[in-house]
Amino acid sequence: MGESVRDVRLDLFRGLANWAIFLDHTPHEVLSWLTIKNYGFSDAADLFVFISGYTAALVFLRIMRESGYASAAAKVMKRVFQLYAAHLSVLFVYVGVIVWVSFASGDPDDVNQFNVAAFSAAPFRAFGHALLLGYKPVNLDVLPLYMALLAAFVPGMWLLAKSPSLTLVLSLFIYVASRHFGWNLPGADGGVWFFNPLTWQLLFFIGAWTGFGATRPIEPILRSDFVFWLAVGVLILTFVVALQSDVGALPQWMPNPFDPAHKTNLAPSRIIHFIALAVVANNLLRPDSPILRWRAFAPMIACGKRSLPVFCCGVVLSFCAHALIELSANALWTQIAVGLVGLSLMTAIAYVSGEFMRRSKARAVPMRAIAIIGWTSRP
Question: Of 88, 120, 125, nearest to 102 (Cα)?
């Protein structure tokens, strides 16, 4: 794939990740059974992190080649601060909505369930921890992880451009050491980050390594029938294990691959399952596939193109959907309705924000031209 050509698959799968995160973040949502987390070891978070690394390599390494390392590093840090601002904005809206709903309904359970009681008990202390990314309510862990991984990409992209193989080896070393020694970033009140950046960076840099084009020498192997059917076999095996886990039939000697600790430190089983998914998807869905032009996929692709506003709104909508489901005593029709409405609102936000960006760029071009003409016409 040439760098000048946008791979629509990235938008499609990023939109899929946004939809899945919304459904998975909504407790008692029947539509969440459509997401991949129920049928294997990895889930939408793994997909999101991999694509983030892939697109980071595509975008910032191109800037580094054209404008130099300093310019690329500045662009990365600008993006980190944008994510930081978005995270704080959605955090305060999210906390406000939860506290208001709990007060209006007379049910304080949601305040504890979604880990926002700190704002009620000691708001200034919680605010300070939030500014330092130590305090994160439930479901607000993804953006801080993304910020940490992008910040790590500032030195990482320099090393990736110099030696892709060494970058991947170093990433693997940090992953193994972090899991072995229990390294993680500190959180509020003696806790740690739910998504450990020191382990999740491996999936991010696998994505960056792939986006850089380091897989080209082994692409014939990755596209071979043997590797394809091996990946299919892995997916079938993990599917069977997932079904056994649902019915509580896992043998005692087997560690539960759905234990939260396995997600915090990115268990190897999650990486293997995700790579198998990626191999199968890459073989079945090529960049020029006519399937990508189907109208049915257009909303998901739009959500992938405008991933940040869609994700932020999806986090708030997931709690709103949860509150409505609780009010209806978990009625099935409510679960389906709020799930579909939430996905529709996320899609509407994607189209509206996309149109806003197009108009902003259209206005910026004439203004830039006027500024250039004014400057060149000076005596």
Answer: 120
pLDDT digits (tens, 9 = 90+) for 88-132: 999 999 999 998 988 887 777 888 888 888 877 778 888 888 898
What is the 3-state composition of the chain as percent helix, strand, coil, each rounded to the nearest 5?
A: 80, 0, 20
Which candidate, 312, 361, 11, places its Cα nearest to that of 139? 312
Query: Per the structure block, which two tokens stand in for 248?
Result: 């509580």
| Model pLDDT for residues 63-79, shown as the tens digit of each residue | 999 999 999 999 999 99
Q: Which two tokens stand for residue 121?
A: 């008990």
Q: Is residue 102 part of a domain?
A: yes
With bands split at pLDDT 50, 70 and 90, how would you rate the model's confidence at 358? confident
State how far the Cα of 13 lies from the Cα of 231, in Å rounded to an integer.
Answer: 19
Q: Which two tokens stand for residue 323?
A: 């509150």
- The CA dihedral of 16, 268, 172, 280, to the nearest 10 degrees, is -50
Report the alpha-carbon distance of residue 66 to residue 52 in Å, rounded: 21
Phi and psi based region of residue 135 (left: phi greater than 0; alpha: psi -120 to 50; beta: remaining): beta
Q: Provide the number of structural domains found in the chain.
A: 1
Look at the pTM and tell me if it is higher than 0.85.
yes
Residue found under tokens 């990740």: 17
Measure Cα distances from 290 to 85, 223, 285, 287, 358 in Å: 38, 19, 9, 9, 26
**Cα 9 from Cα 341, distance rounded (Å):** 25
Position 379 in a domain: no
234 inside domain: yes
Backbone angles phi, psi at 337, to 5 degrees: -65, -50
Residues ≥6 apart with Cβ < 8 Å to 303 = 14, 15, 18, 19, 310, 346, 347, 350
Residue-number span of the structural domain to which 24 is assigned:
17-372
pLDDT for 365 equals 56
In this structure, is residue 5 part of a structural domain? no
Residue 186: beta bridge partners? 192
